[in-house]
Amino acid sequence: MHRALVAFTLAVALAACGTPRPAATPATPVAAAPAPATAAVGTLRVDLVVLSDGGLLHVALYDSPQTFPSEPAQTVTATTTGGRGSVTFDGLAPGRYAVTVFQDVDGNGEIGMGSRGPTEPWGFSNDDGAQLMGPPEFTPSSVEVGTATPTVITLPLRRGIF
């Protein structure tokens, strides 16, 4: 699965969507170390706008430029209803985070690829996928998460690279 996502990154010069784990509870992190209990923690809610309902949303959270876009700090899955989905990452240390997502419409656990790029919907925080001349970079893709109030972003999914 990881190789398929890395191939996705290389094939279309976009970021990988992490290594989602099957059968995860929607909106529940499946891999991450939460911030230390004594540290202030923040929350990031990602509201996803999908092209159509169906298939799991595979969402990956990245916490550093060194691991983006190949090694997510957390991955979650979610379902869609009414053209929307939502995931929440709790217990985050204050700082910058980037998000990638793909909608697994065919249910095979991988982003579908065709000759013109992804065949399944995908997206990046700050819509950094709009710069299609290479893989997205962490800084323009990232958002600031603090501790005072939850950070909420809206991430629209797109299909293909054009």
Describe the secondary-structure layout.
Elements: H1 2-12, E1 42-49, E2 56-62, E3 74-78, E4 84-92, E5 95-104, E6 113-114, E7 117-118, E8 122-124, H2 138-141, E9 143-145, E10 151-156
Word description of this protein:
This protein is mostly beta strands and 162 residues long. It has one domain. The chain is 9% helix and 34% strand. The strands form three sheets. Strands 2, 3, 5, 8 and 9 form a five-stranded antiparallel beta sheet that branches. It starts with a helix and ends in a 6-residue tail after the last strand. 39% of the residues are buried.
What's the helical proportion of residues? under 10%
How much of the polypeptide forms β-strand, as a percent range?
A: 25-35%
**Overall number of domains:** 1
Could you spell the SSE succession in H and E letters?
A: HEEEEEEEEHEE
The shape is globular
What gap, in angstroms, lies between the N and C termini?
25 Å
> What does the largest sheet look like?
5 strands, antiparallel
Radius of gyration: 14 Å
Low-confidence stretches: 1-31
What is the β-strand count?
A: 10
- Helix count from the secondary structure assignment: 2
The overall average pLDDT, rounded, is 78
